[in-house]
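User: You have something folded?
Assistant:
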Amino acid sequence: MEISNDQLLKVIETTPLVSIDLIVKNKEEKILLGIRKNEPAKNTWFVPGGRVRKDEDLDIAFTRITKNELGLDCTRDQARFIGIFEHKYDTNFLERPGISTHYIVMAYEIKPLTNPENFYNMQHQEYRWFSADDALKDNSNVHQNAQLYFKQRLIDDQYKSLNARRDSSQE
């Protein structure tokens, strides 16, 4: 069921949206980001993703979003669940004053065999691969909500390193 922009804005004004963010990694462990064309997070680097539609199963939403955003045929069972994140913005997609946007985000990491080539250009432009170091620099223009995924990766890497040391000392 399609709803009008005004109907969607009323939903955004009164309730959080549920979405899926795609943490796309290449062989060098860099993450794909694009410059957002629209609010929220307009003109900042952000990961691809999209809203889950009403009555849409998560598996179907995941496949639709990866196809639309990246041109990839990918299912949720081919991805690694990173976690649930909360993203809040002072703006909304129609840029109407006084209406903020609140997302509950399920983040999934995917490592496609080939780099994505067909990008859905309604939300992003000028895609680029970022290392954690580059994304977390003060002047990177990577949105703070996208930076959370890089920070999470650094934390995960630290735990893996600590666990590996612990395991090797127990041998």
